[in-house]
Amino acid sequence: MKKIKSYKYQINKNDFVNAGKVSSAIKRNLKKIGFTNRIVRRIAVISYEGEMNIIIHSQGGEIELGIFENKIEIKINDKGPGINDVNLAMTEGYSTAPSEVRELGFGAGMGLPNINNCSDKFNITSSKDGTKIQSTIYLE
Amino acid sequence: MKRTFYLEKDKCKGCTNCMRKCPTEAIRIVDGKAVIDNEKCINCGECIRVCPYNAYTPITDKIIDLKDYKFNIAIPSTTVYGQFTLGTKICKIHNALLGLGFDYVYDESWAAELITKAIKEKVNDQKEIRPKISSNCPAMVRLIKIKYPGLVDNIVEVEAPMEIAARLAVKKVKEKNKNLKDENIGVFYISPCPAKTLSVKEPIGKSRSYINKVISLKEIYGDMVRELKMHSEICFSNPSLTGLKWSISGGQTDACDFENSIAVSGLENVVDVLEELEMGKLDHIKYLEILSCNGGCVGGTYNFENPFVANSNIKHILKTIKEEKIINDDIDRYEEYKNKGYFEVEIYKGIQEKKPNIKEAIEKMDRIERIYEKLPSLDCGSCGAPTCRALAEDIEEGIKTIDDCVILKLEGK
Fold first, then answer.
1. Less Cβ crowding at N or C end of chain A, within 10 Å?
2. Assigned CATH topology for domain B1-59
3. Which residue from B205, B167, B164 is spatially nearest to B185, judged by alpha carbons?
4. Residue B315 pLDDT exceeds 90
């Protein structure tokens, strides 16, 4: 299937000042295009969790939103340091977030499980050079 | 959607204040005058509040309309008691309404207490949806329908206190006066805002309204103050304390006594919270009270007193009056009314979502983006649109042209 459009958003590490702005922009665009509420909500959750993961855990990264005729692809890529044990990170409630981040109300260990739950297809690879998540949602 | 206020064109100077404040970007300035798009207007009343020239005028019924009926019932909004000098006795306020020609007063707070129970049950039953959102403020229900349709299912579907009050009042009156027919009874709601006024003229659910006429509080405030002085303090009943809390922000969550509920008032704050809610950030919250006006219903534009003073007055009443002086058996008949379906309401969800033509929509957005890039990003409003982005959208739709941008003109571009 042909890609109709893609949007790329850069996210900086530790940038709590702008936290949520990228996922808000994604949500706004999808609503304007006219995707159903269910689709918009799932992608909003995926991109928000992805954005927060990059801010909290990585050296920075980007989110790419690809819109196809029959699906939407969200790529969440960061520049490292990578996840030691991906299986453990996929466990609900497991978190490596430092306590100062938890004090802000983040780091409940639901990020990756939430992304997985909202995706129709989910793929994650991680090395010390970075974590790459690809989430796919098929259009109804 | 209908509107319950209108613009006096002679008074409007086209100053853009209302246009910039409108939460749904429903206002444009055309030929130097404000024009409201009724499809987008949620009747929140922000434009009435911010207009420096008092160009917006509420459409309200009047005391003279009492003559249309043989028997007239007044339902004072819970905010009414906050509008008079601290210490003004509730019975004086009720007697003032009788003095104005009403035959019976039924307190909205009694119905609010009943509905508090209904909300508690519904929120506890519907565990799969979090948070549940209050439906008391009609402007907020309309805001969700227009701007956040994905959250419609979060709204608690319960009838509004004013409607329950109207039904129970009529029932009571007919029990006492067996010969009265429905068409001879006039139910008047004393309203704090245009949003509640509209929910009588055009109910949010599919059901009809049980209220016949709506008088804005400001419309009869002067008359009430005059009447207050003439009456003794013979009481017939106090308001419900639980229900009276509904007039101030946080009162509803307090009355429901949920753990983990939040109360948000003021349009801008509500918009922020709904945006977060859409991202799944507030799924741990049980109940979300949202009210359009700062400080809650006491902040409604048809009130006389400023919301902070009114809040203090209400809190004084809550501290000083006694529950045992409530002479109304309706409050104890919750189960009976529940079984009769009094509290059920279906919020009309609007048109079904249709599948978007993604390609077309994206092309349209790209066109808007290209126009937007040419604009100065000042959001000055001089073109008659609230933001540069709104102007870009208007240009794309062919309503305006790029020549409408005053800044570009000044720069000679």
1. N
2. Alpha-Beta Plaits (3.30.70)
3. B167
4. yes
Spatial contact of A135 and A74, defined as CB atoms under 8 Å apart: yes
Main-chain phi, psi angles of A26, to 5 degrees = -60, -45
pTM over 0.80: yes
Residue type for position B320: T
DSSP SS3 for B99: helix
Q: Among all residues of chain A, which has the CA nearest to that of B354?
A: A36
Q: State the virtual CA torsion across B200, B204, B206, B208 in degrees, nearest 10.
A: -10
- Residue B161 pLDDT class (50, 70, 90 cuts): very high
Is the CB of residue A131 less than 8 Å away from at least one CB of chain B?
Answer: no
Query: With the C-alpha atoms ordered B389, B395, B398, B401, is the resulting torsion angle positive or negative?
Result: positive
B359 with A45: Cβ contact below 8 A:
no
Name which of A29, A38, A48 is nearest B281 (Cβ-Cβ). Answer: A48
Q: Search chain B and give the residue with CA nearest A72.
A: B358
- pLDDT, one tens digit per residue, over A89-108 is 888 888 888 887 777 777 77
> How many angstroms separate the CA atoms of A123 and B22, rounded?
43
**Domain coordinates of chain B in residue numbers?**
1-59, 63-339, 358-413
Between chains, do B280 and A69 touch, taking CB under 8 Å as contact?
no
Interface check for A3 against chain B (CB to CB < 8 A): the answer is: no
Task: In whole angstroms, give the CA distance from residue A68 to residue B292.
Answer: 39
Joined tokens for residue B255 = 């009355």
DSSP 8-state secondary structure symbol assigned to residue B229: T
A23 contact B CB<8A: yes
**Which among A34, A44, A139 has CB closest to B361?**
A34
Q: What's the mean pLDDT in B280-297?
A: 94
Say if domain A3-138 classifies as CATH 3.30.565.10: yes
pLDDT reading at B352 higher than 60: no
For the stretch A16-22, contacts whose Cβ atoms lie closer than 8 Å and that sit 24 or more positions apart, written own/partner, are A16/A55, A16/A104, A19/A51, A19/A52, A19/A55, A20/A48, A20/A51, A20/A52, A20/B276, A20/B279, A22/A47, A22/A51, A22/A63
Cβ contact (<8 Å) for B365 and A38?
Answer: no
Nearest to A5 among B150, B356, B362 (CB): B362
pLDDT in tens, B86-100: 988 888 899 999 999
Task: For residue B206, give the amino acid letter.
Answer: K
Query: Does the structure show a pLDDT above 90 at B267?
Result: yes
Q: Give the nearest partner residue to A44 out of B279, B361, B366, using CB atoms.
A: B279
| Contact residues, chain A, for B281 at CB < 8 Å | 48
pLDDT above 60 for B43: yes
Cross-chain Cβ contact A4/B362 below 8 Å:
yes
CATH number of B358-413: 1.10.15.40
